[in-house]
């Protein structure tokens, strides 16, 4: 049995962790984990934002985050 809400909650947690400035070194790992959780949801049950996040995580630029203050 699928627990899609738990998968969504875990994916959202991973996305929040990826945005945390303290986790920039591990950003790719957090995004990959989010994509894995989203990937566990059947395609027919994905929400539009989940489809976007899944596609975005596959297209990540591999650019290091900027340490410059703006």
SSE arrangement:
Blueprint lengths: L3 H16 L7 H13 L8 H11 L12
Helix pairs in contact: 1-2, 2-3
Give an overview of the whole structure.
- This protein has 70 residues and is mostly helical.
- The chain has one domain (4-58).
- The chain has 3 helices and no strands.
- The chain starts with a helix and ends in a 12-residue tail after the last helix.
- The mean pLDDT is 77.
Please tag this protein with its features.
3 helices, 70 residues, elongated, mainly alpha
Q: Strand share of the residues?
A: under 5%
- SSE-based structural type: mainly alpha
Instruction: Give the number of domains.
Output: 1
Shape: elongated
What series of H and E elements makes up the topology? HHH
Put simply, the count of helices is 3
Question: What is the total tally of β strands?
Answer: 0
Average residue pLDDT = 77
Low-confidence stretches: none
Radius of gyration (Å):
13 Å
